[in-house]
Amino acid sequence: MIAQGSGQRITSEQGHMPGRKLIMVTGILMIGFAVLALVLAGYQLFATDARPTPLWYYELFMVSVMLAFGIFGIVLSKDSTKGLVITTFGVILAALRVIDFLWALSVIKSTPFNVFTILNLLAGLVLPILFMVGGNIQKNSITFTFLLMMTPGIVVLLINNYLPMLGSIMSFQQYRYRDNFINSLLNSEWVGLKNFEFLFRNPNLWSNLRNTILYNLAFIVMGMIVPVAFAIALNELWRPRLSKIYQTFFFLPYFLSWVVVAYLVFALFETRGAVNTMILSPLGIEPVNWYTTKGAWPPLLIFLNSWKYTGYNAVVYLASLSGISGEYYEAAMIDGVSKRQQIWYITLPLLRPVIIIMSLLAVGRIFNSDFGLFYNVPMGRSSVYPVTEVLDTYIYRAMIRSTQYGMPMAASMFQSVVGLITIISANFAVRKIDPDSALF
Asked: By C-alpha distance, which of 227, 254, 249, 250 is closest to 358?
């Protein structure tokens, strides 16, 4: 038994050896990148008489961190999980530091799509998979299969969601475009928090922030009530074919572009539109110029949002309803419980986790808004800006009207940071009340 156990242990250790060796190699590679970046940083400061900027100090700090990570990755290589995580992120970040310093020294002068960038992107996409294959994950395991399936989605997520975060630095700069985006980012003047100071002194910010929050609160409430009621109503229909017809009918608006919806609204509410000519005029009421009537727009926008997304959100609740066992309802019917009581005491409590999760996801975007709705439907009429302008449209209009990109970027960063704080706070509150319903 001892020999067999020892043999299994030796075999297991030998199975992990290639992963440990790979971690050792990547740790050494990370140290090499970090040392090269330190040499380039010193050359930039002393040989070119360049003045150190806050970005330069940030780069130097990141290089020091990468150097420490490389050493720790080698030390922790016996623990393949820790060494794997450290070397995976460390070698990519260290390579990025080298690229940044090469750009700062004007070694890379052409467009951003040069050999260094291509190599760096390939490393960022291929190396994480290579490291994970070399770690604890066996080639034929289910985990490896799932990882392989997730790789395209992870790559798209990194390119679309994380790579653009580099532009957040513009919030602290007086950005001026030169040659290419990266070169402009590295050489623009650092202004600290001046963009945020100018942003918060703008009187339009607070009205736009108010509109964004109030509209989203209304959308969250309507998004909880209307789709849930619609899903329950569809679930109670005895004829499946009729249920499918209703579901298709309500799901159709989701596929319409906001541009199409904007022109439908225009056809209804324009001065000579259907509402004025076919409804108000026969009743003897004077035509209304709806595109200058501020009070009409909040309920109209809330209705349009519910009309467009009710069918889509109801599908989520219908899927949850299909997972509820029929035994609950059979037992309730035997006890003489009415249909209304079944919905109130069985359906809604079992739907509560899904409703909470959907609400938490909506709360995370409470400082964002549906750009297509608020930009296209009002048709850019400035007379209704006080009730239709939100943060997203405000940022967009600020960027197209001016070459000062720092202030719109500051507004966008403020929007993202406050949204992150909001969803973390909401999730924390939900976890205290019902841990099973929390997102994380």
From this structure: 227
CA distance 437 to 440: 9
Phi, then psi, of 190 in degrees rounded to 5:
-85, 120
| Kind and range of the H or E run holding 433 | helix 406-433
Pair of tokens at residue 386: 């006080």
3-state secondary structure of 174: strand
User: Going residue by residue through the chain (440 aa), what tens digit of pLDDT does each one get?
Assistant: 444 444 444 344 444 444 566 666 666 776 776 677 667 666 666 655 556 665 566 566 666 666 666 666 566 555 555 555 555 666 666 666 566 556 555 554 444 434 444 444 444 444 444 444 444 444 445 555 666 677 677 777 777 777 777 778 888 888 887 776 767 777 788 888 888 888 788 788 889 989 999 999 999 999 889 999 999 988 887 777 787 888 888 888 999 999 999 999 999 998 888 998 898 888 888 888 999 999 999 999 999 999 999 988 998 898 888 888 888 888 988 888 888 899 999 999 999 889 988 888 888 888 888 999 999 999 888 889 999 999 889 888 887 877 777 888 888 888 888 888 888 888 888 888 888 777 77
The single-letter code of the amino acid at 142 is I
Confidence (pTM): 0.67
Q: Helices 297-322 and 240-251 meet at what angle, rounded to 10?
A: 140
Element containing residue 189 per DSSP (H, E): strand 189-190
250 CB contacts (<8 Å, ≥6 apart)? 230, 310, 311, 314
